[in-house]
Structure formats: structure tokens, C-alpha cells
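Input sequence (189 aa), recorded before submission:
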Amino acid sequence: MLIRMSSEPEQQIGVGAPDAFQRLWTPHRMAYIQGENKPSGPRAEDGCPFCRIPDKSDEDGLILARGRHVYAVLNLYPYTGGHLMSVPYRHVADYTGLTDEETAELAEFTKQAMTALRAASGAHGFNIGLNQGTAAGAGIAAHLHQHVVPRWGGDTNFMPVVGHTRVLPQLLADTRRMLAEVWPPASRG
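Predicted structure, C-alpha cell format:
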């Protein structure tokens, strides 16, 4: 990940009037903006990343824990450090389409995620939710996934509000390792 800060007016010559703003360049975000790895359709075979992730190693897939019906994975485009998702293995779009076993394990993984995030990072609170359908904000609407976003007092600052930029203090691989080490043992493996 390349992050470059610049306030040097001479670097802006030819691209507009120099100003007093610093720029935080985050070119890795272009993959998200351009929809890279987004499925081309509603079926698993249409390129669903949530169907491909379980075939990877835990480290390569950023997987924290695996259950019988659900796995936990770090969000590749996190809102905060430690932002993770509980995802059913089965390609299902709607919460009402889950089996009772999948629903129960999804709920259990949410509890385990909260436990691990508190132990690893001292999270003060959480945003937990499902975005059902594109109209509700689901980036990958074809495969259900529940977000678990740790929060801390004062964690929202000017960067996302004014700069539309998130500042994350830790690389995803390091976050995965830290959370996997404290994940409750009942669902490992």
C-alpha cells in the first residue's frame, strides 16, 4: 500500500493552481471504486469473492475463523481497523434464505467477533449489520455477509468527513493475525 502525503506546490505545477491543502494519496482504493472483484451477476459462478475466499489459506484469504456453515473474514475495504464480516459458505443473498443452522452460527460468529475485537483492540462499541440488496448499500448483494465494525470513542474525525479518506493504523495481515490469535477456540479450524 502506497500512501504519499504532499504539500509541495511545485508538485502541482501544470495541474491547477497551487493551494494549501495536503493530499493523502491512496491508489489502492481504486480497486474498490472501480468495482474490482465485484461479481458480474447473482450466481456463485459469476465471480463471487465470498465463494472464492474459503478456498484460500487463512492468511491469503484474511480468514479469522471457520465454522461448519459460516466463516469470519476481514473486510478488504474496512471502515475501521478490525472491520470484519461473518459470511455463510453457501451463496445466498437474503437473510430469510438462511437455514436455521446458518442463522445460529452467523449469530454465534458475531458474538465471537465482538469478544475477539474487545480482547485484541479494546473496542468500546460496535456497528453490526446486514445490507440487504443493492438499494440498501450492499456492495456484493448476491452473497449475504454481516459486518462487525469495532468503534472507539472519538474514532470519527475529520478525515472521513472532510477528506473522504479512512486512516487505518494497521495492515490487514497484521490485523488478521492479531484477531485470529484471540478468536474464541470453539469456532477455530
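Checked by second reader. The helical segments are 30-33, 49-52, 58-61, 100-121, 158-162, 172-182.
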